[in-house]
Amino acid sequence: MPEGHTLHRLARSHRERFAGRVVRVSSPQGRFAAGAALVDGRLLDDVTAYGKHLFAWFGDRVVHGHLGLYGKFTSGVGAAPPPRGALRMRWETDDAWTDLRGATACEVLSPDEVELIVARLGPDPLVARPDGGPAFDRLHRSRVAVGALLMDQRVIAGIGNVYRAEVLYRQLLSPFRQGRDVTAAEWEPLWTDVVTAMRAGLRSGRIVTTRPEDRPRRSGRVRQEDAHYVYRREGLPCRRCGTPVSRQVMATRNLFWCRTCQAR
DNA sequence: GCAAAATGTCAAG
DNA sequence: TTGACCTTTTGCA
Fold this sequence. Notes:
There is one protein chain. By secondary structure, the protein is α+β, with helices and mostly antiparallel strands. Helices cover 28% and strands 22% of the residues. It has seven helices and eleven strands. The structure holds a DNA duplex.
């Protein structure tokens, strides 16, 4: 589920429910038991996100979460339900709770260790005044395909497989172009579009990248099958030219693109 | 009702 | 490059 917009929404909702409160932290599954004990009963100062990483600041101890492919938070108000299954981490106050399951990372770090994580990431398009410069610096020195570079969190933090495919399509750019062959004139609208698309996802909570004029129904709620240009549309006609959408693994994930519109 | 795949990352070899 | 993580959804019987 999680690309960067999901994590920023999660940080916001956790901040609203839990920041400024004393939180009971536990690990019914046991795997995070030692970490939970380090922050249990502490005041939670803030919850922040950078790229796909989540940070919960309990004074000088920070719970770092990364959802990976399966990770999920489930939240509610009132008393928490009896723990079921592999429940890695639970937060509870007198009137709210949240459960974390299936995460790739759930650990307690020092603020310095948080700095190290953020330092190795590229710019996050969802911060207040995003600067794509460092991303272009990396990209335009690389012989790696732009479709792979966009997935690299050291280049841009928070992009995932859906935004990679959709943004390249919207820019009519071939995923196979080497990074160093992407000109500044091409990069500028690409980066702007990344910021635009991910901000829309942050607002709405879902990834809708198609423009209204490219959807069969132009009013009302966007149907899921109309939300994307190419992502998971292998074999279906390109909305622009009718060519069947292609699929191939790139950077360990299924890449979707239109070989006609994205020949450039 | 079950198998496979899914918006991700890292360690082992 | 492969397996592990170990949840939820989707697609096929």
